[in-house]
Amino acid sequence: MKRSTRILLSILLILVVYIFVFFAEKYMDPFLKRILNTGFIYVILAVSLNLINGFTGQFSLGHAGFMAIGAYTSALLYMSPENKLSNFFMEPLISPLDQIQLPFFWAIIIGGLMAALMGFIVGAPTLRVRGDYLAIVTYGFSEIIRSLFNNLQNITNGPLGLKGLPTYTNLWWTVSWAVITIIVIRRIVDSSYGRALKAIRDDEVAAENLGINLFKHKVLAFVVGAFFAGVAGGLLGSLLMTIDPNSFSILFTYQIITIILLGGLGNITGSVIVGIGFAFLMEGLRFVEMPMNIFGITIPGILGMRMLIFSILLMITILFFRQGLFGTREFTWEGLVRLFTKRKVKQQ
Amino acid sequence: MTEQKINQNTKSKETVLKMEHVTKRFGGLVAVSDFNLDLKDGELLGLIGPNGAGKTTIFNLITHVFPASEGKIEFLGRDITKLKTDKIIRLGIARTFQNIRLFGNMTVKENIMTAFHAHLKSDLFSAVAFLPNYQKEEEYIQTMTQELMMELGIEHLADYKSTSLPYGLQRKLEIARALATNPRLLLLDEPAAGMNPDETLELNELILKIRERFKLTIIVIEHDMKVIMNICERIVVLDHGVTIAEGTPEEIQRNPLVIKAYLGAGDEDA
Question: Across the interface, which of A192, A198, A202 has its CB nearest the CB of B120?
Answer without folding.
Answer: A192
